[in-house]
Amino acid sequence: MLAWADGGASVLPFDGLPYLPSGLFLAEGGQVWTGRRAWQAAEAQPHRFVPNPRRAGDGELVVDGAEAEAVELAAAPLRRAAAEAEGVVGEPVRDVRLVVPARWGPRRRTWMRQVAHRAGLGQPRLVEAPVAVAEHLVATGVRLTVGSFVVVCDVGAGVEVTVLRRGPAGFEVLATLADPAAGGTAVDLALTAAVLNGREVPAGGMGQWVIAESVRVAKETLASHPAVTVPVAGHHPVIADRAMLDAAAHPVVRRVAELTQQCIAAAELTPSDLAGIYCVGGSAHLPRLDTAIAEHTGITPVLVAEPQLVAARGAAEVGAPAAGVSAVEVPVPPIRRAVAIAVPGLASLALLWQALLTAERNNTLSAYYYVLFNLGELTMAAVFALVACIAAGTILGSLIAARSPTPELRTEGGKVSIGILAGVSLGVAIAALYAVVISQYFGLPLRGFLTWALWPIAPTAVLAVVMAMIAARQWRTPSGGWSALLATPTGSVVTAAVGMGLIQYARTADRWPHLVVWLDLTARVGGLLLGIGIVMALVTPLMFRIVLAAPVAVISAAIVTGQSTGILGVSYAIAITVWWAARVWTRLIHPTTSPTALSPPGRGG
After folding, report:
1. Most buried pick, 45, 84, 170, 534, via CB within 10 A?
2. DSSP 594
């Protein structure tokens, strides 16, 4: 399949056929011939014909008494395909995708890369066949939402059934079962036996391979015709009908249905969890295949158009941006990440330190003890502690996953989810610790301080838990990545912290006559800054910030008194909650902008 940069794709022809037969001929000089030339040469020298390239690990292969390297034989079809593609494009093909079975392990994948390198294709990208099929389904308009499950039944020479889940960055394989003896090859053998019906094919020469190829063509023809004539060397032609094909295909069809049922169970799913079952492969047209699968699963499968080509088409679409799917994680520069954590953390400690040192103790006549404490500063210190811990969520998640034996925690979604939950727990614990320290330091009841430290941050903590659930289920990855989403606006933190600090200084400094005006002005400036910090958390566009900052800042400056600091602190906590709610909605639940794809190019030559 030759894919173009504009998204189009065309089948690459070989000797007038839409595919390249796998048969090879090893010539006298060590050259490997493919396609029609190989079959024509094999008529005279069948002992030098190799009907199928050898698999990985087979090492050397003896052909007519001479050793041939298995990698070199397997590279011949790829070398031929590359040459044909270059002839069409007019230049070397640089982006190469090779479709491989999902069950292949590292050894076979490494061998496949060696084959491609020997064929002169450089470093190819290996695409698992069911993943390629699923990508093609999405590209052709099939609605598979993020988090949905789909089954791909690939019925070729053998059968491979795979359950996939659509994640935010593509499809992942949940379970795969295969049976090389339950596919088109098994049907060909059974149909050949029925066609020959005891007749002997002349030994030697190409007789056996010719009858095998004739039966294969007859099998494909019977999918749309009631009968077909099959030539048999040394005998009269035989008429094969649909009943013969049904009988030959029945054991294979039943086995495919059983594998489908077993694979769904292996993925720990039920048929009701599936978005659909799709059949592909050169033998997907087998009669009663859909009926057998429906009987075993309760779901009627869909036969994909051009089932023998769909995996090749889908391989070109892997990595292409799709509607409704956000981009993968974007690395955040370490300095910016450190700032997002350090600034609110330091602001939290600074406000708590100032609140403790500037609190005024009163003991009227040694009978009535009370403390004038800035509860608004406590609230803002708790807010900053929580957002600092949430910003550190991705780091916490990576540290926890690295030491966890649970595989689910090592996935990207697992690390982010456990990191957010750890950050929320740590932030709430620090806020509660602030209340305990203040209570013990002044010898006052704990309940009031806990109220001002925990209740204002409760909505933000709930929103963070929602984000953790989304990350765990991998419903969507936010545009820009999780690290960027979890970072609170630094400008708002600094502005609000400085504003509250100035208000507290103006309230508790010695009010000498010549300083009264300056202290009142300092308090008003602090109120202005705190109001601006609230606006910076509420809205993002600069123009909206300018328009909204004026009235909010004036109001906050006007109400600055000893009793209003608590109201101002809670107001800032509400603003931060609105900030998180807006980000959860616009970047996770209902994205309003199309994501930027950051995965490898989806199409190329």
Report:
1. 534
2. P
Residues in CB range of 508: below 8 A, 6 or more apart: 358, 360
Tokens 């609000």 -> residue:
496
Beta bridge partners of 339: none
3-state secondary structure 229-263: EECCCCCCCEEEEHHHHHHHHHHHHHHHHHHHHHH
pLDDT at 185: 83
DSSP 195: H
Report the distance separating Cα 386 and Cα 433, nearest Å. Answer: 12
Measured in whole angstroms, the distance separating CA 587 from the mean position of its chain's CA atoms is 16
Let me know: does 494 contact 467? Beta carbons within 8 Å: no
The two tokens of residue 220 are 């494909």
Task: Give the Cα separation of 272 and 325 in Å (integer).
Answer: 23
What is the C-alpha to C-alpha distance for residues 538 and 552, in angstroms, rounded to an integer?
11
Instruction: Record the tokens describing residue 508, joined without a space.
Output: 């508790």
> Residue 331 in contact with residue 481, Cβ under 8 Å?
yes
List the structure tokens of 197. Answer: 């019906």
Which residues lie below 8 Å from residue 275, measured CB to CB, with a gap of 6+?
143, 144, 145, 148, 149, 150
Pick from 471, 476, 462: nearest CA to 427: 462
Question: Which residues make Cβ contacts (< 8 Å) with residue 525, sequence separation at least 6?
Answer: 499, 502, 557
Sheet containing strand 302-303, strands side by side: 170-179, 159-167, 149-155, 274-280, 302-303
The answer to whether the CB of 170 falls within 8 A of the CB of 125 is no
Nearest Cα to 541, choosing from 500, 582, 581, 573? 582
Cβ contacts of 224-228, under 8 Å, gap ≥ 24: none
DSSP string, 550-571: HHHHHHHHHT-STTTHHHHHHH
- Give the H/E segment covering residue 99: strand 97-100
**Contact status, residue 430 vs residue 400, Cβ threshold 8 Å:** no
Q: Is 14 helix (H, G, I), strand (E, B) or coil?
A: strand
DSSP string, 40-71: HHHHH-GGGEESS---TT--EEEETTEEEEHH
pLDDT-derived band at 577, boundaries 50, 70, 90: very high
- Which one-letter DSSP state was computed for residue 38? H
User: Mind listing the pLDDT tens digit for each residue in 291-346?
Assistant: 999 999 999 999 998 888 888 888 877 654 444 444 344 444 566 678 889 999 99
Cα within 13 Å of Cα(320), Cβ side: 26
